[in-house]
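Sanity check

After download, print the first record. It should look like this:
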Amino acid sequence: MSTEGAAAAGSGLRVRDADPTEYDAIGKIVEAAFAADGQLAAPDSAFYAGVLRDVAGRAGTAEIIAALDDGVVVGGVTFVPRGGPMADIAGDGEAEIRMLGVAPDAQGRGAGSALMRECLARAARDGAPGTRRVVLSTNTIAHGSHRLYERLGFVRDPARDWTPVPGVDLLCYVLELELELELEL
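Expected structure tokens:
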């Protein structure tokens, strides 16, 4: 497990394991990011907003990674290296990225990319034996997120799209780790 990684050379942006004292801030940031993107507009979204805020609740079964800009938490992500209760769509040999969010006023400065790259590095380095790919789900309306995932090499897997609750349609994206490792060489 990585404890700290550089996000951008020469910047004050860092990613690392979140400290439990940061969970509340991360939860609020992720909720705000989802709301700003229109993802909490469904009638029953109050429940999901609570799920997004409950970082401490998922920390026992997943890894919580924070992005900090000059020491201030500006984003977070839940990384599921191998199955368990926090995996929505991951199957055998897959790690999963969940609940990525960057504070709306901090977007566009590389925090989302840095969080994603840290998850990919962990999957390649620390994932369960046989981890071959990383998967994630994203709302159909999260166009900025789609661009980020595609820029990092993720591809759509429409056969795995799903609807967790009526009115919330999620797209599946997949990245083969072999491809990621080949790109780094």
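If your output differs, re-run the checksum step. Summary of this record's structure: Residues 6-10, 179-185 have pLDDT under 50 and may be disordered.
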